[in-house]
Amino acid sequence: MTDNFEYQCRRRFTRQQPVVEEAVMNEKELLGAGSGGDDGKGIQYYDGVWGGDGTQVHLTAGGVEETENVQAVTPLISLLAGNGHGGSDDGLVTVRGSQGVRITSGPLGEPQEVDDTNGVEIMTGTAQEIHINRGLDSDAAQGRITMTEEGIGINAKAGRMSLSSDYGIQLKVAGGTSSITLTADRIVIKGPMVLIN
Known about the structure:
Blueprint: H1 5-8, E1 24-25, E2 46-47, E3 100-105, E4 119-124, E5 130-134, E6 143-148, E7 151-155, E8 168-173, E9 178-183, E10 187-190
Parallel strand pairs: 3-4
Antiparallel strand pairs: 1-2, 5-6, 6-7, 8-9, 9-10
């Protein structure tokens, strides 16, 4: 070992770490981490605050392909607050990016990765759909917004749907061939044929 080994292993910078409550691990058998004879799962439970820090943090789940001796496992990452180990009903998950948050779904390369998100983006692959429901059952939802290959649908169910603006509202079809324009002083209806019943 060389004499300057101490300096080779020295930390290059020191970052002030946030004050975090000391976490206490519950007394339970935790398999994995080289213990031998485990079930392929590494689980740890802390009764307290657990945190991590890094210049970049990546969570990945690669899954397992089925072979003659191995059962296939679907890649999965779960974030759960409440109704889990403690059974709490007041769990809260927050996701925040100082520049933006981008949520995507689709095959590899679709949608394409970008690094200029400014705000919040929700995107899917061209063959996928987006559903926003108020209520857990999609058929009995109290309100529903869908985006599919067939189009975009908004259904307020038994509730009221409101669209308002201090300036104006415009509905257009076929690039404006037919349109309805509402402003504070007039309503303009335009089209090759207008039928009012």
